[in-house]
Amino acid sequence: MTITLFFPGLGLSFELNRVAFTVAGQPIYWYGIIIGLAFAGAALVTVKRAKLFGLDPDRMMDVFIVTAIGGVIGARLYYVAFRWELYAGDFMSIVNLRQGGLAIYGGVIAGILSCWLICRLRRVKFLPAIDLIASGLLLAQAIGRWGNFVNIEAFGRNTTAPWGMRSPVITDFLIANEARLTELGMVIDPFIPVHPTFLYESIWNIIGFVLITLYIKHRKFDGEILLIYLGWYGLGRAWIEPLRTDSLMMGGVRISQLIAILCVAASVITLLVIHSRIRQSPSYLTLYPNTDEAKAILAGTFYKKGGIDSGDSVVKSFAPRLHEWRRIKARNKWSASKRQMSEISRGKITLRRRKRL
């Protein structure tokens, strides 16, 4: 279904269809395509900048994928939790992302946790890794906001600005939610253009991405880029969120605005404290790319040793046990090897006992 979106003050109009095309009768939505492009952009930034952070690009691709998956799951669960009345009793609607419904702060929280976990498993330093991913996150968010444009969502209250937008979808939404929005202190007229808040956030994120790109080579400590990201995005969200008509609420509080303000305060305080200590003692923190470990990673000598990938701790620890099991099996002790393999896998057979097998 095609819907017209008007920008009357600019004399512009767009014919929008959420479906880009169909494959075997199944619709492929623009929202999914745009989100995919957003992740592709962030992935490209991650790989291209990995060495600036003293990290292996291949391992960082693994870290990025797991972080992205965790972020999407977290963003969806966060949104569903605050819109539970729309999804209760309908599991399939929870996993259906084609109509939108992702909350960025849920994605940030789950993404950070996912990144920490995969970094431990892949022996990648967490702070430089999360810095690297954060350096491209604003680009992904700037691209992803155009999915809101196609879906005609994430718009704001009425405005007389020349870039205000109108659509039958917007009018229907404002009529249906007029009472709720009035309780929040908004004066709503469904037939007057509204703020394109998705556009405000996209522009804000692009500016932040450029500033972070320019600052990367001047950073002083690991974790600084993440703090700058949280502060910059939080500052923008803090002033954009009150304009929106679809905020996630807890009572009368806009959750995203509250989290944004807390992120700004926490990041600014932390940045000021750490920079103050660095000025007093330049050796207070060593940037990871300047460490011997990072130099070994970039030289290709850190992970590869003795034919076993020392970064894959699970494989490294299990390899000698697997060899022991094969030796037992080769000696035709199959009936006993199942029990022995179980003991070996749990590390219960000592070296002395292995010599007697």
Describe this structure in words.
This protein has 357 residues and is mainly alpha-helical. The chain folds into two domains: 2-293, no CATH class; 312-356, no CATH class. The protein is built from 15 helices and eight strands. The chain has helices at residues 30-49, 57-82, 84-87, 91-95, 104-122, 126-151, 168-176, 178-183, 197-215, 224-240, 255-280, 292-299, 313-330, 334-345, 351-356, and strands at residues 2-7, 12-17, 19-23, 26-29, 249-250, 253-254, 304-305, 308-309. The strands form four sheets. Strands 1-2 form a two-stranded antiparallel sheet. Strand 5 (249-250) and strand 6 (253-254) form a beta hairpin. Helix 10 (224-240) packs antiparallel against helix 11 (255-280). The radius of gyration is 26 Å and the shape is globular.
Helices and strands in order, then pairings?
Layout: E1 2-7, E2 12-17, E3 19-23, E4 26-29, H1 30-49, H2 57-82, H3 84-87, H4 91-95, H5 104-122, H6 126-151, H7 168-176, H8 178-183, H9 197-215, H10 224-240, E5 249-250, E6 253-254, H11 255-280, H12 292-299, E7 304-305, E8 308-309, H13 313-330, H14 334-345, H15 351-356
Antiparallel strand pairs: 1-2, 3-4, 5-6, 7-8
Helix pairs in contact: 1-2, 1-6, 2-5, 6-9, 6-10, 9-10, 10-11, 13-14
Backbone shape: globular
Strand order of the largest sheet: 1-2
Instruction: Kindly provide the radius of gyration, computed on alpha-carbon positions and rounded to a whole number of angstroms.
Output: 26 Å
What portion of the residues fall into strands of 2 or more residues?
5-15%
- In whole angstroms, the N-to-C terminal distance is 72 Å
The helical percent reads 55-70%
Task: Assign the structural class, choosing from mainly alpha, mainly beta, alpha/beta, alpha+beta, or little secondary structure.
Answer: mainly alpha
Largest sheet: 2 strands, antiparallel
Overall mean pLDDT stands at 87
Distinct helical segment count? 15
Sketch the topology as an H/E string, one letter per element.
EEEEHHHHHHHHHHEEHHEEHHH
Number of structural units classed as domains: 2
* Low-confidence region ranges: 310-318, 348-357
Query: How many β strands by DSSP?
Result: 8
